[in-house]
Design brief:
3 domains; 25 strands; 8-stranded antiparallel barrel
């Protein structure tokens, strides 16, 4: 334990505690706790805690925490009294469970479960969830919630599904993930519905025009009741051209483009006495491979809809 600051190296079998700042390296079997800022590296078997920003790296078996920067003093009462945060520092956090960095992150966060950051200028990678105020970079996880990020709702019609809806979330248009659902059962047609997950990127966006590329996989349910137990996976690659009809750069966009579908199915149709899916009706197949138990089929189609 050092009540003031440490310059150099601090190594312990259990824990290191520093009252103020660290310049150098901290290594502990269990935990490191720092009451101020750090310039260097904290490494612990369980967790690292720094009350103020870290310029360097934190690596831990469980979690890392970095607090916000101090607020800049207010010059005079007559001037702007809004408190401003001091500039962030380069930070790399890697943990088995989660990372939390309040304020600005300049670097990377990687965790097995989730990351929490303020303004992230770099990359967030998590096994489950990323949370941030804003991201100038990429957030990669099954779920990404960025307050000032990319949030879009899209409804489209395709050759396979009369209606399909997707909720797209990401730190920026350069990479986003989305949940999607589709339904077909209007009129006298056999009912089917699908649920899936996808990833995408907006490769081009200028004024009224944009181009995005989405890849999605949906499990298709075709039984009259409940869930189709057999493998019945509809994979689709979509190239969507977007046009903003109301104003340049507007959120409302009309989207359309070609799609390539690949269906992998083991669903046995008792009426046809073969492996079959109703998605194949009236399709011109460019791919038809497989065995008596599994079929892989491909076709080309279209997508057209609206994005909000």
């Amino acid at each position: 334990m050092a009540r003031d600051s440490v310059r150099g190296v601090q190594v312990a079998g259990l824990a290191n505690i520093v009252g103020r700042n660290l310049t150098g390296f901290q290594g502990a079997g269990l935990l490191n706790v720092l009451g101020g800022t750090a310039t260097g590296w904290q490494a612990a078997g369980l967790f690292n805690v720094a009350i103020r920003p870290v310029s360097g790296a934190q690596t831990a078996g469980l979690f890392n925490y970095v607090g916000p920067a101090k607020k800049a003093p207010q010059p005079t009462d007559s001037e702007n009294t809004d408190a401003k945060m001091l500039p962030g520092r380069p930070t790399m956090q890697a943990a088995g469970l989660f990372n939390v960095a309040l304020g600005e992150v300049r670097g990377a966060q990687a965790a097995g479960l989730f990351n929490v950051g303020g303004t992230v200028r770099g990359v967030q990678v998590a096994g489950l969830l990323n949370i941030a105020d804003s991201v100038a970079g990429v957030s990669i996880a099954p779920l990404n919630f960025v307050r000032r990020g990319y949030h879009r709702f899209e409804v489209i019609n395709t050759e396979s599904w009369p209606v399909s809806a997707s909720l797209k979330l990401g730190g920026s248009p350069s990479f986003y993930t989305f949940f999607t659902g589709a339904y077909d059962g209007f009129g006298n047609r056999d009912r089917r519905w699908g649920l899936g997950y996808g990833v995408g990127t907006e490769v081009f966006a200028r004024r009224r025009l944009s181009f995005s590329l989405d890849a999605v996989a949906m499990h298709v349910n075709e039984e009259s009741r409940g869930w189709t137990e057999d493998l019945n996976l509809h994979n689709q690659l979509r190239l969507l051209v977007g046009f903003a009809p109301l104003k340049a750069g507007g959120r409302l966009r009309l989207v359309a483009g070609p799609t390539v579908s690949v269906l992998v199915t083991q669903r046995y149709d008792t009426e046809r006495a073969q492996v079959y899916s109703s998605l194949l009706q009236n399709r011109s197949l460019w791919l038809d491979e497989g065995s008596a138990s599994t079929r892989v089929l491909g076709w080309v189609g279209y997508s057209v809809g609206v994005r909000l």
